[in-house]
Amino acid sequence: MTTALDRIRVGSAPDSWGVWFPDDPRQVPWQRFLDEVAEAGYSWIELGPYGYLPTDPARLTDEVERRNLKVSAGTVFTSLHRGPAVWESTWEHVGQVAALTRAMGAEHLVVIPSFWRDDKTAEIIEPSELTAAQWAHLTKGMERLGHEVKETFGLDIVVHPHADTHIDTEEHVERFLDSTDSDLVNLCLDTGHYAYCGGDSVKLIETYGERIGYLHLKQVDPEILAEVVDNGVPFGPAVQRGVMCEPPAGVPALEPVLTAAQALGVELFAIVEQDMYPCPPDRPLPVAVRTRAFLRSCGA
C-alpha cells in the first residue's frame, strides 16, 4: 500500500514547459503555461525567470487565482563567490524577485549559483573549483543574503545545487552545508541535478535532513548522462539531448526520495521541474499530466 505523503506539497514550474528566459520566441506564452499547469492538476507554481509571468502583483494575483493556483517560490541567480564587489547588483536583482515572491504569499526564494561554463557556447568562464577565498565569499555571501532576505522580505532562501555551478557534487554540497548557518541558509535539493552530478538524494536527505528546505523533482536518463559526462557536454546541450527525462523512466527513483522527505516530519514543497528547453509547444502538457498521475501513484 502506498504511504500517504501528506507533508509533501506538489507543484510544477515554467521550467517544465521549456521556459528558461523572461522572453524567448521558442517558449510558450505565459498565459498558456498558467492554463496548462492548472489543467494538468497542479495547484502550486514557481515564478520562473523574473519577467516571464507578469511582475505586477495585482495582475499576477488575479491571473493565478482565476486558475486556482498559488505561488510557492521565486528564483534568483547569484555569483556571490566573486566577493563583496557583486553585492549591490545581486541585491538589486534579488530585491525585485523577492518583493514579487512575498506579494504572492510565497515563503521561499530559490537561489541558484552562477555557471562556470557558458550554458550555450560551452566556453569555460572560470575554473570549476573555487579557491579557499572564493569559498569563503560564497558561504559568507549566502549567509548575508539569507539574513537580508529574511529581514527585508520575510522569505527563507534555499540554495539550489546545479550542474555546471560550484555547488554541484556531493563533496561540494556537503562542504557548502558544513560551512553555512542553518538559521540563515538551507537547501533546495533538486533530485535531477544532484544525480547528474553523482549525488544520492536519499542519502543527503537522511544525513542533512534539517537542511532540506525545499525539493525540485526531476530525473536523469542514465545512458544519456554517461555520454554527457564522457564527452564533457555542458548542461544546456545536455538538456537538448534529453538528459532530463520524464519520470519514472530515469534516476533517482522518486518514491524513496519522497518517502525520506516525508519522514523529516516537516511540510515540504516538491516542485516538478523537467528541463526541456527548447521544446515543441504541444509537448509539455501531456508530460505534465502523466507526471502528476505518477506522483499521485506514489502517494503525493
From TrEMBL:
Domain Xylose isomerase-like TIM barrel intervals: 34-237
Ranges annotated as spanning the membrane: none
Entries under InterPro entries matching the protein: IolE/XylAMocC-like, Xyl_isomerase-like_sf, Xyl_isomerase-like_TIM-brl
Superkingdom of this protein's organism: Bacteria
Signal sequence annotation: none
Identification of the protein by name: 2-keto-myo-inositol dehydratase
Species annotation: Streptomyces nodosus
